[in-house]
Each structure stands twice: as structure tokens, then as C-alpha cells.
Amino acid sequence: MGYEMSIGSYKYLVKRRTIFLFSLLILLFIAVLVSLCIGIFVFDINTVLRILLHPISRDKGLDPLQIRVLWNIRLPRIVMAIVAGMCFGIAGCILQCVLRNPLASPYTIGVASSASFGAALAIILGAGIVYWHGEVIFYENPYLIVLNAFIMSMMCSLLIMSLAYYKGASPGTTILAGIAMTYLFTALTSLLQYFGTTEQVAALVFWTFGDLGKAGWEDIIITTIVLVVLAIIVIYLSNNYNALLAGDEVAATLGVNVKLFRIVSLVIASLLTATPVAFIGTIGFIGLLAPHIARLAIGPNHKFLVPASALLGSLLLVVGDLISRIIVSPLILPIGVVTAFMGVPLFLYLLLTRREEYW
Q1: Is 189 within a domain?
Q2: Residue 191 belongs to what domain range?
Q3: The whole model's pTM is what?
Q4: Quick check: is 59 in a domain?
Q5: pLDDT band at 357 (very low <50, low <70, confident <90, very high)
Q6: Residue 71 domain-assigned?
Q7: In this structure, are residues 281 and 210 in contact, taking their beta carbons and an 8 Å threshold?
Q8: Contact residues for 136 (Cβ-Cβ < 8 A; gap 6+)
Q9: Angle, helix 142-166 to helix 258-280, in steps of 10 degrees
Q10: Which domain CATH number covers 300?
């Protein structure tokens, strides 16, 4: 009788988690449709669908300006929001597991501050030349800024992993190393800003706010490839993450090389974070909130938690982008500022009301 009840409980859990994932998919689809329709140019759903099908249908009744707005401006930023949100959500999910800390996020390991320092090197030292045209900032060599930001993010991650490996890759050592690297690269960035011109400092501040509008289709393709490859690896390793939740000793008895697995997970989280950050700048709270909310909703089983964190990350970032475009239209607020305003009260609410047993 007890066995039958256990099977019934497990089936109920699987059903509830599956329904939650499908609900997130539906909500994300609705958010994307609304985001495509609303902005400085307002489209109805029928027009949006006709424009999306234009490369196939070659509909001659469409306005060329509407086609350019949707395909060249609005669609790339929304697709990047989906992909980047998934990257941040998965990165936060695995970091909270391997560091055994529900407050861990991709920025715990210093990715944001090191990326900002990489961008500062390119902008202020002249590799990515900045100039003004009216009220718009242009970058002469934007991909040098992207490359610098990515390289410095990975260098920071390698430093943290080296320190963690030297001290046994314990969660406490990793977190402390990440905090130390964050302060170091923040100080280095401030030092570069001190020597930069007004235009260079303004460009760097604009970059650090985060901007989905900077993303082109080439950037999206690169980020998507990284996401797909690493997401498959994380889902394949989901049983190892579940084992790690029971403690290092239990995971080791189940055949997990805990020290190596923690380092591999840090590499994956760093790549998932550094890739979109290099293209769109720093965007906070998504990697912290998405796995936090998902774990409260469906529990810590990573076979469901990883895709739920990815979908929630996308949903939060798409909604944040929509808010940034309509709240003071026609101005577009920096997405990093909007996610912070969204994230702080929601995170405080979760801290004050969350069930202690969810972890």
C-alpha cells in the first residue's frame, strides 16, 4: 500500500512539474507576442504574423518600414532576451546547487565586474573607439569590446577556479574568491574611468547598464549555439546535481567526483554568463531570481528545475524588456535598471515569505 502511494505521489509530482513547464511556455509565448506588438510602433497580431511570414510569403501589401522595424529592431532584441534569459537562468540554477547557496548567482563569481573591466579596457584605451553623433554613442570597433569583455570574464572565472581547486573547490572558498575578484575588477574599472574622457566614461556607463538593442543576428546565433550545447550537458548531468544536494559525501558514494564536477560546473556557468554579457552588457537579478522562483514552485529536482529556470529567465527578461520600452515611451530605459527594479522587491518578498524547507 505504501509503495502504491509512493508511486502515486511521484506521478503527481511529475504531472505538476510538467504542467508548470507548459504554463511557463504559454506565458513566454504570450509575452513575446505582446512584446512584438507594443512599442513606439504599435502592430496588431495579424500584421505581426504577416511580417514574420514575409520572407516566405513575400506579401506585397506590407509597409517596408514596418518590416524593417520588426525584423531589424524589435525581433532581434526579443530573441536575444529569450536566449540570454535562458543562459542566466541555467547558470544561476547550477551555481546555487554547486555552491549550496540560494543567494548565489552568475555575478557571485565576478563575471559582471570582470566583463565591465574588459569593456573599459577597449573603450578607454582606444581599442573600441567611441564617438558621438548627435545624442547617440557609436563604437568604431564594437567586436573588440565584446571580445575584451568575454576574455576578461573567462580570466576572472579561471582565477576563481584555480583558487577553489587549490583549496579543494569548497563552496565557501569559491564564493569568497568570487567576492574578492568582484572588488578587484570594480576597482580596476574605476581606475580606468578616472583616466578616461567624458565621452569614454559615458560610453562605458551606457555599456554597463545592459542593452538588448545592441544585439544583432550574428550575436544571437553565437549565444544560441553556446546555450544549446551547454544546456544539453547540464540536463545530461542533472542526476549529479541532484546527488550533490544530498552533500559531498553522499554524492561521492554515488560515483560523483565532487571536486572535478564543481569545477566543470563553474566553467559551464561562466560560459553561459560571459557569452550574452559580452554582447549586451551586464543584466542583474535574472540568474538569481529565475532558479529561486522555479525551486519554490517545483522543488529541487534538476531534471525539471533546469528547464524551468531557463524558461523563467526568458520570461523575466522579455517582460523586463517590454517594460523598459513602454514605461517612458518613446525613450527606452536600460534593461539592467529595469531588472534591478523588478528584482529587488520580488527577491525581498521571496526572502521574507519563502518556506525554509524548500532547499
Answers
A1: yes
A2: 79-358
A3: 0.88
A4: no
A5: very low
A6: no
A7: yes
A8: none
A9: 160
A10: 1.10.3470.10
